[in-house]
Amino acid sequence: MRSWQDGDKGLLTILAAWMITVDQNNYNNGILLQRGKVPEICLFILVSLALLVACQPVLDFQIALETDESEPVLGKVVYITGGDVWIYDLDTTQTVRLTQDGYNSHPQWASDGNRIAFRKKDQLWAMELTAKQAFPVSELPVEWFSWSSSSSRLIYFTRGEGLRIWDVTNNIARTAIPISPDYSIENFVWDNRGETLVFNKGSIVDGLYVVSLEKIDLEQNDTATLYKTSNMREIPLIGEVSPGGQWLAFWRWDTDIIFFEKEGLPLCMISVSSGQAHCTASKAIPSREFLDWSLEGQLAYFTIEQKLFVIDPKRPSEQFQVDLAHQSPIYPAWAPDGERIAYSATAIGAGNLSNVQKQGNACIPRRIWVIEVGSKRLNQLTNDNRFCDELPFWSVDGKHILFARQDKENASLWLMRSNGEGITQIVSELTPKPEPLGEYGYIDWQAWWDWWRPDAP
Description:
Elements: H1 6-29, H2 37-54, H3 56-67, E1 76-81, E2 84-89, E3 95-97, E4 104-109, E5 115-120, E6 123-128, E7 133-138, E8 142-147, E9 153-158, E10 162-167, E11 172-177, E12 183-191, E13 196-205, E14 208-217, E15 222-229, E16 235-241, E17 247-253, H4 260-263, E18 265-271, E19 277-284, E20 291-293, E21 299-302, E22 307-312, E23 315-323, E24 330-334, E25 340-346, E26 366-372, E27 377-380, E28 388-394, E29 400-406, E30 411-417, E31 424-427, E32 449-452
Helix pairs in contact: 1-2
């Protein structure tokens, strides 16, 4: 970028002298045409150039901000194609292949963007991206894993070893909760911001089967009980922890109810610090794909009647947003500003799922929508009849949305601006091809891809 230097200031001196000369000639020769115009034009040029010189630091800084391409904005996507791990850089558009054996799934970024973990068959592996060296973390089948917020530890669970914590620095794993015949542990949920880990525990107490919600301090290996019951009509099913770890959403299960997707369960919120819980009057589908916490701690969720509600657990009153009857909504996602919610749903008037034409394992024809929470205005962002659109994710600045697409032959990843413009395919193939399951066409998308977003909270 060129800046104004001393040579440009010399130009101002020459122009000023020329303006005076021209003005004097005009006066002496009595020029009638354009008389008085040339001096005015020269004065305008002189003032403009002087302003440019004065504003040099501001202009240099502004242009540098707009043209600096070294700072990551959108981040990187790790994904599975042909059973191998690949990375696509959204800012440089470069693609890198990391594995060659075709037996990999469930890629997951560390928060620093320098490491990933993934499953190789049933084993847990990790890779440091600078060296591109992959190594096994556990040789036993791993059911769940997650990175710590510092990216220095990997937390995982196996039926043979229990809950384990692997330290990246010294390559040593320790047991946080061992396997025991006296209890069972499962359904782990981790909050990266607050480093809060909660899980279900089942045990026999005085001849009764007791199910509880437990929180563990990973540093001290101490557990605290948040909620427990021996009433088989109030079994807690874990949902999601709010950002920062203050609240936990869970469903209260009456074990007499077998068909969750049709009957639904009450959705409850419990304070992780005090253990106080309250539940909604409406019933929701007990799956994490139907709720999402905002950064401010508000919970958005879909009821069994396919209505979107928002609730603040500090002021537990449900706020109705929109009725999406017969649209099969799924995957609500709060925008970083807390003013919009993206989600996936069929077109208005498409009819219920039983009326949607499906051939073989064809996908449900959903589209990406955004609702403005304040005005409750709906905006349909995608409308391509060739695809089924699911799982919207916001960029950190809220200006882009990344989402998954399916057709009869393939699954892929696409990026668009938050108003629906500029739709671009970034990953052409996710394989082995995901197959929808259940009435809602659920897909375990975390088995195929993950998005690292710089400075994500």
